[in-house]
Amino acid sequence: MACTELPRLLLAAPASGCGKTTVTCGLLRLLDRRGERPAARKCGPDFIDPMFHRRVLGIPTGNLDLFFTGEADVRRLLAAETGGAGVLLIEGVMGYYDGLGGTTDRASSYHLARATGTPVLLVVDAGGASRTVAAVIEGIARFVPDAGIAAVFLNRCSPSVHALLAPLIASRCGLPVVGYLPDDPTLQIGSRHLGLLTPDELPRVEELLDRLADRLAETVDLPLLLRIARSAPPIAWEPDAIQPVTGRRPRLAVAEDRVFCFCYRENLDLLSRMGAEIVPFSPLTDRSLPDGIEGLYLCGGYPELAAEALEENRSMRRSIADAVEGGIPLWAECGGFLYLQQRLADEGGRTFAMAGVLPGESTRGKRLRHFGYIELEAGRDTLLLAKGERVPAHEFHYWQSTDEGDACIARKPVGGRRWPAVVGHARLFAGFPHLYLPAKPAMAARLVGKMCERSAVG
Asked: Strand, coil or helix: what is 295?
């Protein structure tokens, strides 16, 4: 048993859209300026919030998800991979108590705070209200006996309303208000149908982050915030028993650019620990796959936003087709899966040729096709799962394909709705579901093992 001192806060909210990402990024930039060595994590399966955290800090961040893994795994991931941080900010997900199925607190921000002993900063949108804000905070803080709310931050709040609300919240709820942000359009992060815009899509994103930090330097009681973070108890955790699959390091090409950017950091960390050498490449701008690779991972993203450019990069499409024809182990998720098919429609409905190594053409539906957590069960042996094995996963997309595969059955954990998913065989696993490899480390071991088998045969 190991024990790690880690000052930390979890930023939660009554609902999505209250400003968690804005406040988290601004505080990270401010803490970094002050030399506090901040680190960040995201509660839940979201990809874009960690991209903003990375942009602020210039260091890797990651996800903590209690649907994908158990409480002991989350404590290990939290403590083992953030060693040396002066303070950790965990950005929550949805509303504070919103968990699996909408009626439980499993995998909620509250669940994560309780499992890790992390004090909670409640970010509340105070726009368009005054006294009622205190009622909302009081209800959340007293909803359960161990709510864990330690302080409040008021978003979209004027200085005058902050002056009125802070003493009311302190007297009614027993909670300090550590700061506020005014309602300022220049401090907002844009969004699209799948959530926030990515950092690369925002013009002058660094200026936005600096403006946030500048404003928070004037409106946040940073010493109080740090005292609350330092009140968090040490994290007790058990090291895992991960060992390399091989004595050498087979090269795994991983798609990484402004289009293919939805990849869990923990997936790459685990593959590296299993023995793989991670070799980034860009399907958008590189002319061919890296030399000497023995495996290929095409992660998710927004290929529809660059469909014409992906079509025009014919040499990359040929390089991928040749590699697949040569039997390279291939894992593709969501956007990567779309890119492997015959054709893809962009957001305007125009269709473009893709890599063409899988059957199917993809178009955008009028509503979310599948959304949320699922469990996958393999109906036959595939690259990552053996027949009968199950693994938690996640889907979130509007796009639909004429051939989404039937190697697995996807099942909603609440309600039991099910559908066929994944194109797969012994050297292939491709489909809309996103996987979190620490949920089942054997998947990473299989991928690295197949890479070694291929190089041995070659």
From this structure: strand
